[in-house]
Amino acid sequence: MGGLNLEVFKFGMYLMFPIGIMFYFGTNLDQRFSVPDFWPKPENANKVPYDRDEIHEELERLRARRLYLREKRLASEAQQQQQQNNDQE
């Protein structure tokens, strides 16, 4: 059996180990764990429209984008269908 010195050492380790880990990882966080340009700049972020005109403009933009992507998808599907028909012949 170890005795009193061993118990004091174990108690000291139980206290100092978590405190040492917290001190090591808790200091200098901004320089150690930071990723440059992680958050987008305000001019690159989405802006929520609040005015009635801004809302209508955003809806028109979304509608135009949706229609453009639909036309692109339909053209791609038609081209694939045409290629399949040519391959079957």
From TrEMBL:
Entry-linked Pfam families: Pet100 (PF09803)
Record keywords, A-Z: Membrane, Mitochondrion, Transit peptide, Transmembrane, Transmembrane helix
Compartment(s) where it occurs, according to its Swiss-Prot or TrEMBL record: Membrane; Mitochondrion membrane
Membrane topology: Single-pass membrane protein
An annotated GO BP: mitochondrial respiratory chain complex IV assembly
Name used for this protein in its record: Mitochondrial cytochrome c oxidase assembly factor
PANTHER family: PROTEIN PET100 HOMOLOG, MITOCHONDRIAL (PTHR33968)
Gene Ontology MF annotations: unfolded protein binding
Similarity comment text for this entry: Belongs to the PET100 family.
Transmembrane residue ranges: 6-25
Source organism of the structure: Neurospora tetrasperma (strain FGSC 2508 / ATCC MYA-4615 / P0657)
GO cellular component terms given for this protein: mitochondrial inner membrane
InterPro entries, A to Z: Pet100
